[in-house]
């Protein structure tokens, strides 16, 4: 246990800071998962989580990490040998591709530079070229947690429609849900994948699939083997507020409380807050004279910002100094960005002064690490926050 | 939220009562899962959980229910079309069989009457008959949560050895681990499956696989598709205290605290306590003039007792009365035992007076339901408890 | 930290078992005691605590034990040398007398046998004899925590009225408030003294004074020195939801939650529950062949029962055995009852099965201590509980 | 409940931010205050709190606010009509004077300008003039919470000694204990008064008196009436780990945890941290072009800083803007400083980034309120923090 005073600054792009109220909710006594109180809890959260996905359809909540929810999206809708279209937007898109291949799918993986989102024009082109409709699904990471780039799902949807292609649209919202505007139904997404430990402000341990009618129909035909991830027994048991196996009761307590917080603030206000914090963070980065990794103004993430360092500086050294001196965790560069970037998480349960403290810590850490920065960066961020 | 006063009596055979200390531990702030504090936590619990399984080998801890750990045991060690030997000891053995078949395994399912455990003689006989060693694994539920019958794993092991058969031994300890004596290494078990919400006194959300060297070798050859459940990336990441995907941090906090409780009481004392509580419960049941479902004195479960009612009485009606009048949850009869039995959980964080209150509630509930019982049953239990 | 499993049985007559919800409420972050959120909290609890006292007048809540609230009742209403009438109903009445004398009051202390409450006839007689109205106040302990005897306040009120005497009526409800029917306004009580750790189901740390208009008028003239306990600055600051000095914020969080629990169950149901549990406890005691200390059927306490042992047995030895073997705390005999009685608390957050477990533990402990008891005692209690 | 996201910034000079670990400790179940576990708790905290006061003598811990501990210091050592010497260093010194007068003491109150601490030369002069030794005690507020001025107790002690005067030295350390170096024994203090909700990082509800041998001797002769505050029964009961009345069990749980935190960081490191945070805060204030209220460089408080605004600005308006826009509480100007100053608390559980966020919020709030400030103030603070 560390001897440091005060609260740790957890400014990675998830797990995010869990609100005190949610932590206390987790500590409620576990109850009978076959009894009436549990059914009431489950029905309540299943109903109230739908608007967060922007859907009126079913949402399955697994006792799992988000990785499990990735797998669930694939095994419920696809069959061995199915072709899917995916995009190298960053580390997590690559991992999802690896999983798809490991499960026996054939992945068309469009290369990328890890600084841009999915290009809707490429989607249109690839689908148009697929005249025999052999592509069964398009896999998109909405917000690349490794890069801070947000793909434009409505434009991707439009591209699919334009091509008149029947492929399913599978979207990973792991680091966007509850932080960045997202609309499962309106955008015609078929499976939305998410998890608990980011915008939902919970500890890790819940995986989510929001499911369209088209995805449900696909599930009837899908032949990838599945047991734990099988939607069918969930949808049946959930009707009465139960689970096909022992449910993650205490995390559902936390979810109920977290949903109350989101409802109390209101989703539009939540999204506006994230937009504002992201803008302030970019103002700081640019004020310091550093580069934001995301290369397209239309694709800046509102939940995290990846900061590119000059080549001669090691981002992990900066992170270590900041952890040691200021008790703050930042996200590392992942995969081919290792050592090149660090990532500032500004999603979940956060306010202006915590962001100000965060950016002050980054500024001091950069200075201590010998990275040349203009200290007016912090002030530029405050100008945004002050409004 | 119920208006009733006092603490709910959660006397189902799991989830069990989570100790206050563990509940508070769950409420610690979530930390960076790639930072040094997490690594320290993970290495600590991975090391300290081994003795609970009676192993010095690796234990994988999944963010999942126990059902996931069932699946993990199968997909990591077996290939499509593999033959496995399983036994109809009750509802959960049947579900595990169903899963195995769903995953593409061929199951030899030895029928049973749900009142006995696995018969070691049948194991010996079946394996001896399998001269070509086509049976790849023997699947055993150590403690059948649906019946309160504990199979004799050492004798099963001896039967396998006697037959000179190379089959893997896969054992489900979901409702026995941390409650009933169990020895993964000594008994030559290859994969031990367990979960958090029973003897480990945690909320649901963690699945466990303890893995023998033989199972690790089998995993090299196993061809069932797997991603989330794949041992290999776990074993590699766990070496340094990390996870292949986002770990269930707050449940690991709880696990650390629960392990401290088990260590503080000492496993032999924990097992003796469960034995004593089970004996007291059986004394009550027999004192009431009712029948314990388990039909073999060598196989009584120390973690739960299933009580068989006279045919003309509905066990669910008894349970409902007890829930309504005494705020106590008991386990229902499952599968073909629905309405015929109710189950008293006496595992996990429990003491003599809570058991006395439990049995008093059962006695009063039976009386209120019009089941003819001899009220000296409770007193017989107290005679056991008083010693 | 004890190695014992399960939840400790805290069956002393206070501090009582604090409900989980209240414990979690205590753990909310402390806030600015001069800010709007605090004012809202304070106004809320001050308003909602009134019905628990049966008053529509002011209630002062001190950061103190109940002993402080005793002192507050005296120093706010009386002057040095004032004469008060008090009654030796037990240990706590004697301590309150000692305090009054220590503060410079002259106490007429009517002797008692510690098995009866205040005799209204003696009140009438003493006041009638005080023709010059030199007695400034009558001090009554509503429920003697040391004996389990409840004095009949309405009859005492009637006796005062009958005598036409202007004395103030000061009543200690420390172990009755929120457990036993009590009506400050209707019964014409002038100061009601109470505290947090009994029927209010909170940890110790709050002292209460409910104050009549007559007491407020008396306070104008009272000349005992006072600072911390002075009502006047409280009444002024409380108007706007503030405190004259730093308030006990976290205990007020707990109080808010505890009031919600009482409101949810409803005070009449709360009182009926206590009456029923007390009846069951007396049935057990008598069934064992032992004697309840309280000697008047009209005065049995519904919040605790003192059990008188045969002379040759040491009640403290029984308590020690019960603590060691069954992890249950019972109340000791106090003052001249040391070793002669033990006290079973059955107030606060309690249900039938916890009471059954409690009485089972007492029965087993008596047997282990060699006190001859008829084991049908427990069954007699269950007959009451089952109804 | 506010809809705002993130953690409230509680930067008043107490109550301070209670660490999560302490909040969870508060939520432990209340235990029997006459049992062995309580005795162990009480003996542990009584022993471990001594070094925080810098004493090896007794410390009494009351269930009370700090105001109660003020009263205790007076009533245990003094008699009606006794003369005491006190100093108008600010609002709280004035309130303590008022209390002393209310209790019947005669106070020589040396006027002050609320920008300086106690002048040791004046102490020397007044005591030298008191040839008949009629002054029974010198009352000093170590750290004036209303002004951010720390009096130099060692020099005051030297002044008393120089005068050869037998007066007791009574010191209020309410907002310095555990934050600013303090040594009860070494500095020859007779009664040190403190409370829980500042440097001890607890909720309000505990009052403390550390007591010298000379004070104990004075207590033998002191004739102010006392009951609740009487040291004698405390010192006797505390010997065995008990209390003369019901103790504040859950706050003592919190105290135990808070003492662990202080021990883990180490008192010298704790004091150095507070000094550094105070220096950073003053750097910000001066950088903004504003004035620190404390007028003597030797007397700057390390636990809070009072900021004087230009006459035409209302400090309460600034505070309101900061509360509304940035969810941060600051301390108001008290008494004659109302509207003229606001106070930044930087004591207790605090780290560099929270202080940076705090100062960023103050800077933005001043700007929004139209107070002319130089925005390089924050940067000056970061220069101090970065080192």
From TrEMBL, chains A, B, C, D:
Keyword Transferase: yes
InterPro entries: Aminotrans_V_dom, PyrdxlP-dep_Trfase, PyrdxlP-dep_Trfase_major, PyrdxlP-dep_Trfase_small, SP_NH2Trfase/AEP_transaminase
Keyword set includes Transferase: yes
Gene Ontology molecular function: alanine-glyoxylate transaminase activity; L-serine-pyruvate transaminase activity
Residue ranges of domain Aminotransferase class V in the record: 14-320
Residues the record lists as binding substrate: 343
Cofactor names: pyridoxal 5'-phosphate
UniProt superkingdom: Bacteria
Keywords per UniProt: Aminotransferase, Pyridoxal phosphate, Transferase
Stored SUPFAM superfamilies: PLP-dependent transferases
GO annotation terms (biological process): glycine biosynthetic process, by transamination of glyoxylate
Pfam family, one: Aminotran_5
Residues recorded as bearing N6-(pyridoxal phosphate)lysine in the entry: 198
Subunit structure as annotated in this protein's UniProt entry: Heterodimer of a large and a small subunit.
Family designation: Belongs to the class-V pyridoxal-phosphate-dependent aminotransferase family.
Function: Soluble hydrogenase catalyzes both production and consumption of hydrogen from suitable artificial electron donors or acceptors. This subunit catalyzes the tritium-exchange activity.
Protein name: Tritium exchange subunit
Native organism: Saccharopolyspora hirsuta
């Amino acid at each position: 246990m560390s001897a440091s005073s005060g609260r740790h600054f957890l400014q990675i792009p998830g797990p995010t800071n869990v609100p005190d109220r949610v932590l206390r909710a987790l500590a409620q006594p576990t109850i009978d998962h076959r009894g009436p109180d549990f059914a009431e809890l489950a029905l309540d959260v299943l109903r109230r989580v739908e608007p967060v996905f922007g859907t009126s359809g079913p949402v399955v909540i697994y006792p799992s990490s988000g990785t499990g929810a990735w797998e669930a999206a694939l095994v419920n809708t696809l069959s061995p040998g199915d072709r899917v279209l995916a995009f190298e937007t960053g580390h997590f898109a690559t991992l999802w591709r690896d999983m798809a291949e490991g499960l026996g799918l054939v992945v068309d993986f469009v290369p990328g530079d890890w600084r841009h989102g999915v290009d809707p024009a490429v989607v249109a082109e690839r689908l148009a070229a697929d005249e025999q409709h052999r592509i069964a699904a398009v896999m998109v990471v909405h917000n690349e947690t490794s890069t801070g780039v947000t793909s434009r799902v409505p434009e991707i949807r439009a591209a699919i429609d334009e091509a008149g292609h029947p492929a399913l649209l599978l979207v990973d919202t792991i680091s966007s849900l509850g932080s960045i505007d997202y609309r499962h139904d309106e955008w015609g997404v078929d499976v939305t994948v998410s998890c608990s430990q980011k915008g939902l402000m919970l500890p890790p341990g819940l995986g989510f699939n929001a499911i369209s009618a088209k995805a449900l129909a696909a599930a009837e035909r899908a032949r990838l083997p599945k047991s734990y991830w099988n939607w069918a027994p969930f949808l049946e048991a959930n009707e009465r507020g139960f689970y096909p196996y022992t449910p993650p009761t205490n995390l559902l307590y936390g979810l109920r409380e977290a949903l109350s917080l989101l409802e109390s603030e209101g989703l539009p206000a939540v999204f506006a807050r994230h937009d504002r914090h992201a803008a302030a963070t970019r103002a700081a980065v640019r004020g310091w004279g550093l580069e934001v990794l995301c290369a397209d103004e239309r694709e800046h993430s509102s939940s995290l910002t990846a900061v590119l360092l000059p080549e001669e500086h090691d981002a992990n050294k900066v992170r270590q100094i900041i952890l040691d001196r200021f008790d703050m965790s930042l996200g590392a560069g992942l995969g081919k960005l290792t050592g090149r970037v660090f990532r500032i998480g500004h999603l979940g349960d956060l306010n202006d002064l915590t962001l100000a403290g965060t950016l002050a810590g980054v500024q001091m850490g950069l200075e201590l690490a010998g990275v040349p920065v203009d200290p007016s960066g912090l002030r530029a961020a405050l100008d945004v926050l002050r409004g």
